[in-house]
Amino acid sequence: MPGPHLERRHVTVVGAVIVRDGQVLCAQRGPGAQEGLWEFPGGKVEPGESPAAALRREIREELGCDITVGDEVTTTTHAYDAVTVTLTTYWCTLADNVEPRPHEHAALDWRPPHDLAALIWAPADVPAVHLVGMAF
Length: 136
Ligand SMILES: Nc1nc2c([nH]c(=O)n2[C@H]2C[C@H](O)[C@@H](COP(=O)(O)OP(=O)(O)OP(=O)(O)O)O2)c(=O)[nH]1
Hints:
about 15% helix, binds 8-OXO-2'-deoxyguanosine-5'-triphosphate
């Protein structure tokens, strides 16, 4: 039986597909793991937390704004070298007129859905990117 150090860590992550005026908010990771890759802002779900509550908390921390969380886009699992990520993305809207700011990301970019695929995304996000690109 492999020791615990050989078992990949598994994390449950939520990502926000924030839509405004027909554009989708894309976020570029800052220094650290997967630096420079694009993702849907969000993060890990904490024990006892609902996915929607986790997403609202992460977006407040990362972008300084409040969102309304809607239906799921998709759930995908991707095995990275050190960790396996199960990512669930949700359709979201901004809850008020507060403009999202990159507190933790290197950059933010609003793009029409068909332009998302021109960016280089974290591997776990690629199925969601294609679904979003076809959705509207
Ligand atoms: N937030 C987010 N993370 C993603 C996406 N795709 C993807 O593979 N990941 C990975 C990167 C990380 O390994 C993990 C999420 O980590 P994170 O650093 O964003 O979350 P966190 O703020 O809760 O993390 P931490 O500060 O506690 O380390 O999931 C995505 O679209 N959004």
